[in-house]
Amino acid sequence: MRVEVVLAWPERYLRCELQLPEGCTVADAIDEAALDTAEEAVACAIHGVLVRPQHLLRDGDRIELLRPLLADPKENRRRRARGGD
């Protein structure tokens, strides 16, 4: 099966297409991709939906390695509501 692993940071984008056997997991694909700084990812998603590393992959899946938040979304909304941004 063909899957894709992507890692997007503000200053760069890394992408790796893989051919994996059936029964592989998200963790298997991340290990196989061996993208630089992948260990900094705090979560992963498939097509925008959060998944666990044990999640079984399907042909065509796009695994997105998610970076930590730079700001608290709730605090940003509060600041905008107060007119701070």
Structure in words:
- With 85 residues, this protein is an alpha+beta fold.
- It has a single domain (2-81), classed as Beta-grasp domain (Ubiquitin-like (UB roll), Roll).
- The protein is 20% helix and 33% strand.
- The protein has helices at 26-33, 73-81, and strands at residues 2-9, 12-19, 43-46, 49-51, 62-66.
- It has a five-stranded mixed β-sheet with strand order 2-1-5-3-4, with helices on one face.
- Strand 3 (43-46) and strand 4 (49-51) form a beta hairpin.
- The model has no long low-confidence stretch (mean pLDDT 86).
- Domain module tally: 1
Helix-strand makeup class:
alpha+beta
Q: What is the first-to-last residue Cα distance?
A: 46 Å
Biggest beta-sheet profile? 5 strands, mixed
Q: What is the CA-based Rg, rounded?
A: 16 Å
How many helices? The count is: 2
- Which blocks of ≥5 consecutive residues have pLDDT under 50? none
Strand elements, count = 5
Give the helix proportion (percent range). 10-25%
- The CATH superfamily bears the name Beta-grasp domain
Query: Mean of the pLDDT scores?
Result: 86
Shape descriptor reads: elongated
Beta fraction of the residues? 25-35%
CATH class category name: Alpha Beta
Per CATH, which architecture? Roll
CATH fold group? Ubiquitin-like (UB roll)
Strand order of the largest sheet: 2-1-5-3-4
Q: Please trace the helix and strand order, writing H or E for each element.
A: EEHEEEH
